[in-house]
Amino acid sequence: MADYGLPDVPFHAGPLLTGHDAYEGMSLSERKRLLGLFVIMTRRLPITYRTFVHRKSDFDDNRQRFEAQLKRDIVNLLLAHLSDFHSYGTVKVYYDGGQQIVTDALRGEIEYALSIDAIVYRDASPRDYRLEQVADFLCTLELTCEKFRNGEQTETDNKFFGDWKSFRVNYLKPIRRKRLES
């Protein structure tokens, strides 16, 4: 980032897009350049990912139904890739604790599906872990995809990503090559 004359700021998609927190006072072009560098880094990382998208309204605000669906999603993904997970000596789960329902689902279903003693849980902060920043970015892209599909994209989405076609070609498609299918 220094080579490009940009500050070394931990990536956090929401504030980057809106110009808040550590990005306050940065121009739109600087923030777009930071996003571009982060995209390049993410494309080069040897990672796979999977996100789950659910609308609360689909569950009639029924927390138990939502939690059950989230647990099914997690366990089905883990079981589909069980041999991959068992090939690691240690499985580390980093989560920022943002939503208790997610924390509970992750902990319970990972322990259930993997049934190994080599699981380590760590609090994660985007300031401390680059992979946490990557996870934030991937979730932002998947959420932005849903917003475009439903015609709910914001002016900020359009400023950073362009129209649906530009977003899909320049951001979503290259990143989705890393998506872990269930």
Tell me what the structure shows.
With 182 residues, the protein is mostly helical. The chain has 8 helices and 2 strands; from the N terminus they run H-H-H-H-E-H-E-H-H-H. The chain has a two-stranded parallel sheet with strand order 1-2. The longest helix has 20 residues, at 130-149.
Furnish the topology, listing elements before pairings:
Blueprint: H1 13-18, H2 28-44, H3 63-80, H4 82-86, E1 91-95, H5 100-114, E2 119-123, H6 130-149, H7 155-161, H8 164-176
Low-confidence stretches: none
Given the helix and strand composition, which structural class is it? mainly alpha
**N-to-C terminal Cα separation, in Å?**
35 Å
Overall strand count: 2
Q: In one word, what is the shape?
A: globular
Query: Could you estimate the helical fraction of the residues in percent?
Result: 55-70%
Main β-sheet description:
2 strands, parallel
The largest beta-sheet arranges its strands as 1-2
Gyration radius (Cα, Å) is 18 Å
What is the average per-residue confidence, as pLDDT, rounded to a whole number? 89
Strand content: 5-15%
Number of helices: 8
Reading the helices and strands in chain order gives HHHHEHEHHH
